[in-house]
Amino acid sequence: MLSQAQIIERARDFVYQALSGEGSGHDWWHIERVARMAVTLAEKEGADVFICELAALLHDMVDDKLTDNEAEALQNVKDWMMTNGVSSSDRAHIIDIITKMSFKGGNQTDKVSTLEGYVVQDADRLDAMGAIGIARAMCYSGHTNRPIHDPSMTPRDNLTYEEYRSGKDTAIMHFYEKLLTLKNRMNTDSARALAKERHDFLLLYLEQFYAEWEGKR
Ligand code: ADP
Ligand code: NI
Q1: Is 205 near ligand 1, meaning CB less than 6 Å away?
Q2: What spacing in Å lies between the alpha carbon of 38 and ligand 2's midpoint?
């Protein structure tokens, strides 16, 4: 039987192979950061560290942005867990987390509902905030041919999933449509504390951005 540490090690290899060449901001290092943050939060919140770390490692393997066949991607992850000694209850828990945690415009009806789900979702969301979050938004925007900023375009409210993915936005609009909303969407107290600092950094960045845009600073 594989130990939990061995399963984690194998999961790292599995995901690294799949994502190491990804260029839209969902690269391997995103996974690495989310997994690390998930462990930190799990320890603080008293969640199951193994479940959190494994779900964090696997969370983008079923992302609709990275695959054109979600059902197949999901089956792939299930098969991988089966052949690598993850128990059936742990498999079910991890599938539950990674299929429900994605932001997709913020109006998802299926929500994570376990402490481990809260932790992994918070870890993923924290990576969309702060200095790294800004880098990722700019990277994703460029990757999808979106402009940095257009003063004639204003942020939209209550986005449907189609609108969210439509491409008719700018990197700066994304701050308002997602990044600045994340602070109030954290599930755990530990993440809320970290989110505050990252949120303030987003605001500071925007202030400098507009000042430079206007030629004032
Ligand atoms: P999830 O994969 O959880 O559904 P997203 O797809 O919204 O989350 O985001 C993944 C990363 O890409 C995040 O860092 C996010 O801020 C960035 N991103 C997603 N959509 C946009 C966009 N329209 N403009 C800029 N960055 C984006
Ligand atoms: Ni992610």
Answers
A1: no
A2: 12
